[in-house]
Amino acid sequence: MFSEAFKRYREEIVQLSQVEVAKRLNISKQLLNKYENGKSQIPNDILRKLVDLYQLSPVDLYSIISGDSYSDQHDESAMLLREKFADGETERALNTLIQYPQLKNLLITASYYDQKKQERFINKLITLIKTIEE
């Protein structure tokens, strides 16, 4: 089934949790769960976002639709897809830092802290972001 193939792709290739994907799509985890379990049809706008998020080429999308999995037989292919996804995520993060130079400067400054101070800084930043997200 198409929706289950997207779930497998999320778990096996991009290795993101439902919570992480739902946040990136700006939908609830429960709604993503319904899509992945075939209880609700994936609307075109969400499908486009998934294709963009997972950085799927037409060939990759066809493989998912046709049920071709990236299992043990396709370890090399799966590894390349994971790397492509990770590179895209890194590029997105770097673009955000370029877009917000104050954040970039803050992180650069923190990179000069000693290890203990860096850990405290990063932990506080993560806590702040999680608080804002809730």
UniProtKB/TrEMBL annotation:
<dbReference type="Pfam" id="PF01381">
    <property type="entry name" value="HTH_3"/>
</dbReference>
<dbReference type="InterPro" id="IPR010982">
    <property type="entry name" value="Lambda_DNA-bd_dom_sf"/>
</dbReference>
<dbReference type="GO" id="GO:0003677">
    <property type="term" value="F:DNA binding"/>
</dbReference>
<protein>
    <submittedName>
        <fullName>XRE family transcriptional regulator</fullName>
    </submittedName>
</protein>
<dbReference type="InterPro" id="IPR001387">
    <property type="entry name" value="Cro/C1-type_HTH"/>
</dbReference>
<feature type="domain" description="HTH cro/C1-type">
    <location>
        <begin position="6"/>
        <end position="61"/>
    </location>
</feature>
